[in-house]
TrEMBL record:
ATP binds at G44, P45, P46, G47, V48, G49, K50, T51. PANTHER family: REPLICATION FACTOR C / DNA POLYMERASE III GAMMA-TAU SUBUNIT (PTHR11669), REPLICATION FACTOR C SUBUNIT 4 (PTHR11669:SF20). CDD domains: AAA, HLD_clamp_RFC. GO terms for biological process: DNA repair; DNA-templated DNA replication. Belongs to the activator 1 small subunits family. RfcS subfamily. GO terms for cellular component: DNA replication factor C complex. The gene is rfcS. It holds the Pfam family AAA. InterPro entries: AAA+_ATPase, ATPase_AAA_core, DNA_pol3_clamp-load_cplx_C, DNA_Rep/Repair_Clamp_Loader, P-loop_NTPase, Rep_factor-C_ssu_arc, Rep_factorC_C, RFC_lid. Residues 36-167 form the AAA+ ATPase domain. It comes from the Archaea. This is Replication factor C small subunit. Keywords: ATP-binding, DNA replication, Nucleotide-binding.
Length: 319
């Protein structure tokens, strides 16, 4: 029997099912009630309900005919100007089917569109407003040109709160007949970091190993270091014990298989929890940002992370 992907199985079918975005859902509901829709732009991090909101709006507006009056395109796959000139334009110019007053085009990850494609899209949005509405989804609204932003009602989605993640995970656990420990639930909230999609996928992967889900399983299948290990790495290096800190780093990189970027991101998160003087934290945050830039530019991750630990030790001694 084919395994059902839970992120699809538990996808919201109506606006009220979307968690963690109460104020936005309330405003979107008014469009469904009035059966009138402007062009919309959803921006925010991954896994916070942008795509689910767009599809829920279409389902509630058009009912059973929603698939005939809706097209979804992922701009990261089809990002050139030809997509706007042909696929989008051809769909926009056709008459809505059934009792629908307009069609809806959903452009996911629109910040991946080239500038030429966005310029062509701007004209298409203006020309076919009477028969078609656009819902544009992006992670970074700054990458969308101003003429498109000015034509849209902009909704900025926030990361999902830990409480909302916990509520949804508990619901799925009950539906699937699983057991989850309190530390396992805390681990899911930690690795999700506001991304509901990541939380649900982590739960399903853990459930394939064991029906009882605990902290160790979650960290193992998500390739995440235990926060206590990261905090200890910081503490040891701050105390000046470089060789011990380097040994702990080796464990994370070689035995647990984490990438240098993974370790750096967790170091950054852990810095907010570690009890250090503010002046020292400022210096360390500045250095973490510098190392992150170097890794992005292709520097050797092992050398950069060891240099970071050495900097931790030297800086504390200098204060």
């Amino acid at each position: 029997m084919k395994e059902i992907i839970w992120i699809e199985k538990y996808r919201p079918n109506k606006l009220e099912d979307i968690v963690g975005q109460k104020e936005i859902i309330k405003r979107l509901r008014s469009y469904v009630v009035s059966r009138n829709l402007p062009h919309l732009m959803f921006s925010g991090p991954p896994g916070v309900g942008k795509t689910a909101s767009a599809i829920s709006i279409v389902r509630e507006l058009f009912g059973e005919e929603w698939q005939s009056n809706f097209i979804e395109l992922n701009a990261s796959d089809e990002r050139g100007i030809d997509v706007v000139r042909y696929k989008i334009k051809n769909f926009a110019r056709t008459v809505p089917l059934g009792k629908a007053d307009f069609k809806i085009i959903f452009l996911d990850e629109a910040d991946a569109l080239t500038s030429d494609a966005q310029s062509a899209l701007r004209r298409t949005m203006e020309k076919y407003t009477s028969s078609c509405r656009f819902i544009i989804s992006c992670n970074y609204s700054s990458k969308i040109i101003e003429p498109i932003q000015s034509r849209c009602a902009i909704y900025r989605f926030k990361p999902i709160s830990d409480e909302a993640v916990e509520e949804r995970i508990q619901y799925i656990v009950e539906q699937e007949g699983l057991n989850i420990t309190s530390d396992g639930l805390d681990a899911i909230k930690y690795v999700a970091h506001g991304d509901m999609r990541h939380a649900i996928n982590a739960l399903q992967e853990a459930a394939m190993i064991d029906k009882t889900i605990n902290m160790d399983t979650i960290y193992q299948i998500t390739a995440t270091a235990h926060p206590a290990e990261i905090a200890e790495l910081i503490t040891v290096s701050i105390k000046g014990n470089f060789l011990s800190a380097r040994s702990k780093l080796d464990n994370l990189l070689l035995e647990q298989g984490l990438s240098g970027e993974d370790v750096l991101i967790q170091l950054h998160r852990a810095m907010f929890e570690v009890n250090l003087p503010d002046k020292l934290k400022l210096k360390l945050f500045d250095k973490i940002g510098e190392v992150d830039f170097r890794l992005t530019e292709g520097a050797n991750e092992r050398i950069q992370l060891e240099a970071l630990l050495a900097y931790f030790a030297i800086t504390n001694e200098a204060l």
